[in-house]
Design brief:
The mean pLDDT is 92. 40% of the residues lie in helices and 19% in strands. Helix 10 links the parallel strand 7 and strand 8. It contains twelve helices and twelve strands. The protein is α/β, with parallel strands linked by helices. It has three domains: 143 residues, Globin-like (Orthogonal Bundle), CATH 1.10.490.10; 90 residues, Translation factors (Elongation Factor Tu (Ef-tu), domain 3, Beta Barrel); 118 residues, Rossmann fold (3-Layer(aba) Sandwich). The strands form two sheets. Strands 4-3-6-1-2-5 form a six-stranded antiparallel β-sheet, with helices on one face.
């Protein structure tokens, strides 16, 4: 437990953390990667270049300082980060490294504000936070490893088949190289792919939603050809191998009989396909609405499969929006207002670009949907909607 004095000292740094500019965040990461270059095999270096990770860390620390006397408020965010860290195989010593460079950065760049008393308070507070993460993440590792087909760290998989789902999205069917069973997952979760693209000095790790129910001794992911790692994935062929972390993620289809509304845009359709397939296979009586938006017909992934499911399952219906070009579907962007939705008892799942998800959440809230019934997935550094 932290003393009242420690809590007060940590809270006094909220403005410092909230206003940490690019000079502070860049200094922290430059310092850490200079002293511990091995962490470049864990951190998404593309997010380093864009600056997304920089602000995410200090925003998270500011949130921790704000709620340090009421940590249950952060439980959902902590769980989401736990799963992300588990997918990256984060270990206890990594927290020591990050904590050291965090404290030293603040001492170096804000010596007047970051007094010895505040430094000691933050050391105590960070140790408490690290212990929470380490304990919960070890629980995830042990639980996954103990299940049939489970494993810890990475496991080798072979690309068994590829299918072009649309102009930019390709599905990869991944089978365990040892031909042994693989651990199950909940629809909505993801796996992390560990690869070393041509010309890269470091291993790159990316999370991809599982886009189908479990395959025989393997999984399916569906990847949009965009960015370093996704581009590398599209260059691979049947027979090539990749290393995978076990399934993780707190964005999961709830096993209830409540009506489901699956809302996606672009490649955000991937976890929704796993959810739709799961509902069709195990809960066909659950009323389900599948709402999807994309640019045009060339970027409409899984169109035939969604049509097949809606034609074969009377409780599943789909509404599609095209932003460009004529079609038999809705035009423009998703507008929820005219639809008949289960506003009071439904579960709403949202995935797509962050601005899209923010817009969908705003529409749902304006229609009276309770915030707890709106579930969403954000890849990369966590962003609030």
């Amino acid at each position: 437990m932290l003393s009242n004095n420690t809590i007060a000292l940590v809270k006094s740094t909220i403005p410092l953390l909230s206003n940490a500019g690019t000079a502070v965040t860049a200094h922290f990461y430059d310092r850490m990667f200079t002293h511990n270059p091995e962490l470049k095999d864990i951190f998404n270096m593309s997010n380093q270049q864009s600056g997304k990770q920089h602000f995410a860390l200090f925003n998270a620390l500011a949130a921790y300082a704000t709620h340090i006397d009421n940590l249950p408020v952060l439980a959902t965010a902590v769980e989401r980060i736990n799963h992300k860290h588990a997918s990256l195989n984060i270990q206890p010593h990594h927290y020591d490294i990050v904590g050291t460079h965090l404290i030293e950065t603040l001492k170096e760049l804000a010596p007047n504000e970051f007094t010895p008393d505040i430094e000691q308070a933050w050391r105590e507070a960070y140790a408490l936070l690290a212990d929470v993460f380490i304990t919960q993440e070890e629980g995830i590792y042990k639980t996954t490893e103990s299940k049939q087909g489970g494993w810890r760290n990475t496991r080798t998989f072979v690309i068994n088949e590829t299918v072009q789902e649309s102009a930019k999205v390709k599905s990869f069917y991944l089978r365990s190289a040892d031909n042994k069973p693989v651990v199950g997952f909940q629809a909505g979760q993801y796996i992390s792919v560990h690869v070393k693209p041509k010309g890269c000095d470091n291993t790159q790790i990316r999370q991809y939603s599982l886009s189908d129910v479990q395959q025989d001794k393997g999984y399916r992911i569906s990847v949009k050809n965009q960015g370093l790692v996704s581009g590398h994935m599209h260059s691979l062929n049947v027979g090539d191998v990749v290393e995978l972390s076990p399934p993780a993620g707190d964005f999961m289809l709830q096993q209830t009989d409540s009506p489901k509304v699956l809302i996606s845009a672009g490649v955000g359709i991937t976890p929704m396909m796993a959810m739709l397939e799961s509902i069709a296979a195990s809960k066909p009586d659950v009323k389900t609405q599948f709402l999807h938006a994309c640019i045009n017909s060339t970027e409409h992934s899984f169109a035939n499969r969604v049509n097949a499911l809606t034609n074969s399952a009377p409780n599943i219906e789909a509404d599609i929006w095209y932003e460009q070009g004529p079609s038999q579907y809705h035009q423009g962007r998703i507008n929820l207002t005219p639809l008949t939705l289960p506003l009071t008892n439904g579960e709403f799942y949202v995935c797509g670009p962050t601005p899209f998800m923010a817009a969908m959440k705003a529409q749902l809230l304006s229609l009276g949907v309770a915030p707890a019934r709106i579930l969403y997935e954000v890849f990369g550094p966590h962003e609030s909607l």
